[in-house]
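4.2 Preliminary Data

To establish feasibility before requesting continued support, the project team ran the inverse folding procedure on a target of 96 residues. The structure was first converted into the token representation described in Section 3, and no sequence information of any kind was made available to the design step. The complete token record follows.
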């Protein structure tokens, strides 16, 4: 599956799992390495970097931003192999 297909399916699943949330796609050219998706839910947020598979290449600064944003709220790399674990952890982090 291509990354864009996985991302599209993931966005639909996030919207179903977190009713009323907003999923924003970030511009890859604005801040190099910033995560692909920002999920706003209530007064909390999560950042997700979408990869087509676990062994996919990490571009410069991606690990940095996932670490930084993970300290601020919730951030993770997400790919088909870890999707359920990431969404479960995100659900815990976004609970009121």
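Position-by-position output of the design step:
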């Amino acid at each position: 599956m291509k990354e864009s297909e996985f991302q599209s399916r993931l966005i639909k699943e996030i919207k179903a799992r977190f009713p009323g949330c907003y999923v924003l796609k970030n511009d890859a050219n604005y801040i190099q390495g910033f995560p692909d998706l920002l999920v706003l839910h209530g007064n909390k947020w999560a950042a997700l970097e979408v990869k087509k598979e676990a062994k996919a290449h990490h571009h410069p600064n991606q690990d940095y931003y996932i670490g930084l944003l993970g300290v601020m709220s919730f951030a993770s790399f997400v790919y088909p192999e870890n999707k359920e674990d990431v969404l479960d952890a995100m659900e815990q982090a976004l609970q009121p």
